[in-house]
């Protein structure tokens, strides 16, 4: 079983915004070292409905954190696709041309069936990087009004399937295996350009095994959702599952190497 | 380090396929992890209209698995809840209540009776606050978590009863901390948010929990078969707690609580 050299494709910087880039990177590395994670992809500080300034500030901070440990951390450009196309184009060209970014991250700002995503998808193909999209079959019955409102533009797995159909050349990571569940796995099963990351909720049993049986272990990536979740809990979803050692290796690092074009034990 | 898992269950749950689907598989999972004693209840007893049928079936099989100790699900709205309990009383590690699935309040007088009876029997009362993530429940099975405030109030009304709140979320620990001295909590559902201490050192799940409640009120609970045992094991392994606190959480706290 792989216990070192793990690649975690779904992490966030420490919460609170009080830390410097250097402190944030140190925090991530400390946690990664404790659990055998070699490389992590950082998605930025999640802010729904972020303004232009907040978006720029957030991406710049992700850049600075990744730069602090460039052989072990890489960033994803976290964008609000509802922003003006010229701005999105400028940010993508600026950051994806640096060695510190290897992907694009999208959250709750716009449902991914919206055609305003087209520009971002085309850029992901141009720069040969994946798009990681927050996805959840959320049941909002137990949520307050504000929380429900914040989720009104969320994407579900069938939306991601539509995106994959529209952009077969793009590599799409559907975040949160447990959030999309069995139905979500089935939604994207026939789209070979969609990978699923294992993050989301507590480490419930059975879902990962179903995913491996349905889409194969080559389309599943380890993601922890650190800082919202812990590596000790989220790695248990992989280590505790009834899977062959080879499937675990695929999930814990091999697939991420292909999706993010990572060669060797460290980022170059 | 001796580990007692107070939060395990076995059986069929219609909306989740488990990793361990036979008692042999479950036994093997716990044996590999070195968990010495496992308190096990029947999952079917949550949804089936009366728990005795499924409890009896499970308990009859546990004789072949000495690692497992039976936990009886008690539903006090049923006329025969006491008889069902009495029939198996000698073997029980604990009783388990599901007020959110069975439709009663913890203020109910019959719950007070259960608390008194548990003291007489010298066993704890386990209260799973949930078995899954409310956000992912299907539309036909929407069940709110048990109120932490109600558990606290129950513990203050029955200070002599050992109550164990299972599956609390991080934020619910702050409420449960206000309960009586014999109100304990497991850590099966605690996961993140990762944070730093004043010296900028990362805190583990159990270090954070121990900052909210005294570590002598935390107990080992895996949530198997719903959750991976591996998660609880790793939380303890990477807990970074003093040895006596870790040993207490692993088994000492529950052993000395009743």
Topology readout:
The complex is a heterodimer of chains A (268) and B (258).
Chain A: E1 6-11, H1 21-34, E2 37-42, H2 52-68, E3 73-78, H3 85-96, E4 101-106, H4 118-127, E5 131-134, H5 145-150, H6 157-166, E6 172-175, H7 177-188, E7 194-197, H8 207-215, E8 220-221, H9 231-234, H10 236-239, H11 245-259
Chain B: E1 4-10, H1 23-33, E2 37-42, H2 44-47, H3 52-62, E3 68-73, H4 81-88, E4 94-96, H5 99-102, H6 109-121, E5 125-128, H7 148-157, E6 163-166, H8 170-176, E7 183-186, E8 195-196, E9 202-203, H9 205-212, E10 218-219, H10 229-237, H11 243-255
Parallel strand pairs in B: 1-2, 2-3, 3-4, 4-5, 5-6, 6-7, 7-10
Antiparallel strand pairs in B: 8-9
Helix pairs in contact in B: 7-8
List the secondary-structure elements of chain A in sequence, H or E: EHEHEHEHEHHEHEHEHHH
Number of helices of chain A: 11
String of helices and strands of chain B? EHEHHEHEHHEHEHEEEHEHH
Number of domains of chain A: 1
Structure commentary:
The complex is a heterodimer of chains A (268) and B (258). Chain A is 42% helix and 14% strand. Chain A has 268 residues and is an alpha/beta fold. Chain A has a single domain, classed as TIM Barrel (Alpha-Beta Barrel), CATH 3.20.20.140. The radius of gyration of chain A is 17 Å and the shape is globular. The two termini of chain A are 26 Å apart. Chain B has a single domain, classed as Metal-dependent hydrolases (TIM Barrel, Alpha-Beta Barrel). In chain B, the strands form 2 sheets. Chain B has an 8-stranded parallel β-sheet with strand order 1-2-3-4-5-6-7-10. In chain B, helix 7 (148-157) runs parallel beside helix 8 (170-176). Chain B is globular and about 55 Å long. Classes of the chains: A alpha/beta (268), B alpha/beta (258). Chain A binds chain B through residues 14-15, 19, 23, 26-27, 30-31, 34-35, 136-143, 178-179, 181, 201-207, 209-210, 225-230, 232-237, 239-242, and chain B through 16-20, 132-139, 142, 144, 188-189, 191-196, 200-202, 204-205, 223-231, 233-235, 237-238.
């Amino acid at each position: 079983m792989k216990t070192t050299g793990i690649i975690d494709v779904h992490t966030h910087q420490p919460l609170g915004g009080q830390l410097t880039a250097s402190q944030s990177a140190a925090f991530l590395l400390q946690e990664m070292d404790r659990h055998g994670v070699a490389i992590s992809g950082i998605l930025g500080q999640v802010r729904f409905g972020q303004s232009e300034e907040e978006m720029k500030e957030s991406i710049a901070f992700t850049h600075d954190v990744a730069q602090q440990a460039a052989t072990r951390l890489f960033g994803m450009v976290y964008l609000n696709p509802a922003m003006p196309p010229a701005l999105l184009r400028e940010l993508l060209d600026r950051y994806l041309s640096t060695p510190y970014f290897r992907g694009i991250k999208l959250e709750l700002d716009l449902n991914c069936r919206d055609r305003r995503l087209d520009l971002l998808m085309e850029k992901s193909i141009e720069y040969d990087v994946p798009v990681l999209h927050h996805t959840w079959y959320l049941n909002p019955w137990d949520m307050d009004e504000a929380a429900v409102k914040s989720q009104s533009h969320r994407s579900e797995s069938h939306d991601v399937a539509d995106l994959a159909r529209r952009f077969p050349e793009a590599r799409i990571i559907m975040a949160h295996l447990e959030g999309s569940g069995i139905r979500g796995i089935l939604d994207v099963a026939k789209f070979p350009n969609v990978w699923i990351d294992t993050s989301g909720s507590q480490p419930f049993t059975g879902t990962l095994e179903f995913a491996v049986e349905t889409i194969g272990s080559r389309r599943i990536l380890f993601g922890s959702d650190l800082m919202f979740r812990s590596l000790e809990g989220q790695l248990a979803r992989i280590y505790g599952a009834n899977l062959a050692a080879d499937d675990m290796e695929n999930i814990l690092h091999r697939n991420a190497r292909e999706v993010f074009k990572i060669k060797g034990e460290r980022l170059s | 380090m001796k580990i007692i898992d107070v939060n395990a269950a076995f059986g069929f749950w219609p909306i989740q396929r488990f990793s361990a689907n036979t008692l042999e598989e479950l036994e093997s999972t716990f044996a590999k992890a070195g968990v010495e004693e496992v308190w096990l209840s029947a999952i079917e007893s949550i949804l089936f209209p009366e728990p005795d049928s499924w409890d009896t079936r499970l308990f009859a099989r546990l004789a072949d698995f000495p690692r497992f100790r039976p936990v009886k699900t008690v539903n006090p709205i049923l006329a025969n809840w006491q008889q069902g309990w009495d029939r198996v009383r000698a073997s029980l590690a604990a009783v388990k209540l599901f007020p959110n699935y069975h439709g009663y309040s913890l203020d109910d007088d019959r719950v007070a009776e259960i608390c008194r009876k548990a003291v007489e029997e010298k066993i704890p009362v386990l209260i799973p606050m949930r078995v899954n993530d409310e956000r992912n429940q299907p539309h036909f099975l929407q069940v709110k978590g048990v109120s932490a405030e109600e558990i606290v109030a129950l513990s203050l009304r029955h200070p002599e009863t050992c109550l164990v709140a299972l599956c609390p979320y991080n934020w619910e620990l702050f409420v449960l901390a206000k309960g009586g001295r014999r109100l304990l909590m497991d850590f099966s559902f605690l996961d993140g948010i990762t944070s730093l201490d004043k010296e900028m050192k990362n805190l583990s799940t159990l270090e954070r929990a121990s900052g909210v409640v005294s570590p002598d009120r935390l107990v080992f609970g895996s949530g198997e078969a719903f959750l991976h045992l591996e998660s609880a094991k790793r939380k303890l392994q990477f807990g970074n707690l003093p040895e006596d606190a870790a040993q207490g959480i692993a088994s000492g706290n529950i052993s000395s609580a009743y």
